[in-house]
TrEMBL record:
One GO cellular component, as annotated: cytoplasm
GO molecular function, one term: ATP binding
Region feature Disordered, mapped onto this chain: 248-274
Provenance organism: Actinomadura logoneensis
Record Gene3D superfamilies: P-loop containing nucleotide triphosphate hydrolases
Compositionally biased intervals (Low complexity): 262-274
Protein's name in the database: ATP-binding protein
UniProtKB keywords: ATP-binding, Nucleotide-binding
Length: 286
């Protein structure tokens, strides 16, 4: 099981219901978790994997650098089960094999690939529930995304659960049921910081600067007590927000210049929400 997650009861309940439905009733389901960098999408996918016990889990993580590689993501997802391609009807198996680079034939038969994927997932689920974890789908190559969406939209009674995670702008209009991940309430943010031995004024400052973003809470909390107004922005937080920062025009108000950024609230796009309206008032939030 992964890290303890605070303030995600509703999300965990919804995921658990999907997993239970697959296990107990053979129903398929899908959910797309959407939210900003560091908000806890991957952590929830890992929590789901941990809850699945011995069920089969297939995974793919989108990489920005591989976006141009047609079917690169599908290759990642299906490579561990490539031996099961032999069980598929000829044309579907051929299309999938070609997509995965296991046979000649090019990438022309997109319909066949989608159909092959759907059939393969259904076939795997004959042995028990299957969980597909699709992380960072904003960076999936288009051919893989199309095949995955084709298959996911047609899943019904196979016992396959697909959980996807996207940053705010990823996979818009996919038709998948979505659940937005908001920033943590202050009381949950406080729990993330508990046990770190931070003095009360440092806790207060980290809460304010992190604004309910779990990654920022962890990174700022790890920085320990610092002089007022000088919370450093660790590389991990900058890296997480980097792509969003890079896309902002140079003259965007509040756009940080490298080395001058002090907090994720400064690094966030101007539209990023604060901690559900409770900037720094634990008593009124909990
Ligand atoms: N609800 C939570 N309670 C405690 N810790 C959390 C919570 N959510 C996330 N974390 C922790 O915060 C960090 C960032 O979370 P995570 O990597 O899941 O973010 P993400 O949304 O996947 O970000 P990215 O878009 O950059 O991939 C991780 O160390 C994770 O364990
Ligand atoms: Mg992630």
């Amino acid at each position: 099981m992964g890290a303890v997650l605070y303030g995600r009861d509703a999300e965990q309940a919804r995921i658990a219901a999907l997993l239970d439905d697959a296990r107990d009733h053979g129903r398929s389901g899908a959910l797309l978790l959407r939210g900003e960098a560091g908000i806890g999408k991957t952590a929830l996918l890992e929590w789901a994997a941990g809850r699945c016990g011995h069920d089969r889990v297939l995974r793919v993580t989108g990489y920005e650098a591989e976006r141009v590689l047609a079917f690169g993501a599908l290759h990642q997802l299906l490579w561990p089960v490539r031996d099961r391609l032999d069980a598929l009807p000829g044309a579907r198996a051929d299309a999938l094999r070609a997509a995965l680079g296991l046979a000649d034939g090019g990438h022309g038969d997109r319909f066949g690939v989608g159909l092959g994927l759907l059939t393969l997932l259904a076939d795997l689920a004959e042995d028990g529930p299957v969980l597909c974890l699709l992380d960072d789908v904003q960076w999936l190559d288009a051919a893989s995304a199309d095949a995955l969406l084709f298959a996911v939209r047609r899943l019904a009674a196979e016992g396959v659960v697909v959980l996807a995670a996207a940053r705010d702008e990823g996979l818009l209009g996919s038709g998948l049921p979505e659940m937005p991940l908001g920033r943590l309430e202050t009381c949950d943010a406080v729990r993330v910081l508990e046990g770190r031995g931070l003095p009360a004024d440092a806790v207060q400052r980290v809460l304010e600067e992190a604004a309910g973003n779990p990654l920022a809470l962890l990174e700022f909390g790890a920085a320990g007590p610092t002089a007022p107004g000088t919370l450093p922005v660790p590389e991990r937080v900058l890296a997480s927000f980097g792509a969003q920062i890079a896309r902002l025009p140079d003259r965007t108000p509040g756009r940080p210049r490298r080395g001058r950024c002090r907090s994720p609230s400064a690094c966030s796009p101007p539209s990023a929400p604060r901690s559900r309206g409770c900037r720094i008032a634990p008593a009124s939030c909990c």
